[in-house]
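does this look right to u?? tryptophan version
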Amino acid sequence: MKKNENSRSSFSGKLGYVLAVAGSAVGLGNIWRFPYLAAKYGGGIFLLTYLILMLTFGYALIVSETALGRMTKRSPVGAFRSFGKSAPFRFGGWINAVIPMLIVPYYSVIGGWVVKYLFEYLRQNTAALAKDGYFDSFIANSSETELWFLLFCLMVIAVLFAGVKQGVERVSKIMMPLLVLLAVFVAAYSVTRPGALEGVAYFLIPNFKNFSWMTVVAAMGQMFYSLSIAMGILYTYGSYIKKDVDIEKSTQQVEIFDTAIAMLAGLMIIPAVFAFSGGDAATLKAGPSLMFITIPKVFASMDFGTGAGILFFLLVLLAALTSAISLAESGVSTFEDQLGWSRAKSTLLMGAVILLFGSASALGFGVLDFVRILGMSVLDFFDFLTNSLMMPVAALSTCFLVTRVAGLDRIIREVEQSSAFRRKKMYCFFMKYLAPICIVVILLSSIASVLGWITL
Ligand code: TRP
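got this back:
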């Protein structure tokens, strides 16, 4: 471990910390992933499940990871190791550290799709993008998807090499408010289209008829993904904060902000499915392509649709870039710390991982279309592997560390160094009972679905 306590950089202040965490939390997960899952897995009932999980389980995990990071002043691998050297500790640290390395390749593929759409709006191809089938023929074209993927990677890797992280944070501070404004505008436009109200109702009002077990599995995966938990990121961020940051309050602020953006994205996209595609079931279940088929229809119907399209995809691109950069950055610093490699060498290795797994995901809808892993395309497989299998295990290892090794008392003392711990009792209950039970149940259902025992 090269970085010691004194040389460890820290955030400038409380606001700086919240903004940094919010910046890494808000990304494609909010704008692209949340709406398609909500549309697919039951609308309002998905939203309700998501909110409950976030306020209980998610809350407890964020507090735990941040407190453990601040306590040990280490990223996940080092944080786990500081409690013990045996295999379970090594495993717990590494599973947290490896997840971002597996996410960033396929994240960059979606980033590439965003660059492609931005480019087409810049060329004023607004009407063509809104045509049915446009997206499908685009992703089936392997040389195109690979090209746009490479372009996005290049931006990420260039930033990592240049090490201009500070600049990235500054960009994201300006970009976030703009993104919120534009999202409010597009959502307002979307929900006032004829026929859109049905979609608003579908998204906001829980209907138990739409509930399936997969609603819970998907909501939990999404919660991990969107809040960047169960992958070691918050250990690292926690290790940078000073003792005066109110961990509970900042957790709340990040959760509110992240959820607000996700809900705005839901309101942009789901009502539009009803207004422009009559809410047909196939479109609602479109999955990863939902944003790319629906949003262009909204813009094509607007007066200044091309301008709105350019602005929208530009902001989404920036949000995606900042997230991809922090994901990759976490991989790079793991290599630096654990392998003792130079920054340049670590960046090259991370770049190689992104190119290899990312290309496989990018080509998975074209020339590699025949490749099916457990019945899934490569991109879907990586998404499933990380969100439904590995993150629950990572979360379980954090629960274990908190309840069995460090002890709840120590976490509580850590939080109380800066403020009263208002939801202490709830926190203990969640960590001791709710979280482990949820995780085990989710994990078993994911495995059962892979083995074909149940269809989720
Ligand atoms: N939360 C990000 C999003 O919503 C994605 C993400 C997951 C992430 N883990 C992360 C971003 C770690 C930065 C760091 O898109």
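The domain at 8-450 is CATH 1.10.4160 (Hydantoin permease). idk if thats expected tbh
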